[in-house]
Write a sequence for this structure.
């Protein structure tokens, strides 16, 4: 049970950091994307860097979504 609580806390921390950097994005969308990427690491043997990897993946995703198009 402690592991689940720690995972939820970690998810919340990643959501907070990403949302702080992208306030224009709905927090629920940020949470959904963080959850999506965390799921990819569900079976990872080493989980120490999962929050950092997930944060970078979500930030990259959001940067791509908000890049201005040049015509």
């Amino acid at each position: 049970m402690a592991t689940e609580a720690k995972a939820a806390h970690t998810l919340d921390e990643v959501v907070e950091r990403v949302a702080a950097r992208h306030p224009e994005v709905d927090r629920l969308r940020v949470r959904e994307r963080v959850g999506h990427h965390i799921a990819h690491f569900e079976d990872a043997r080493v989980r120490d860097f999962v929050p950092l990897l997930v944060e970078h993946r979500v930030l990259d995703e959001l940067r791509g979504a908000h890049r201005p198009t040049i015509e």
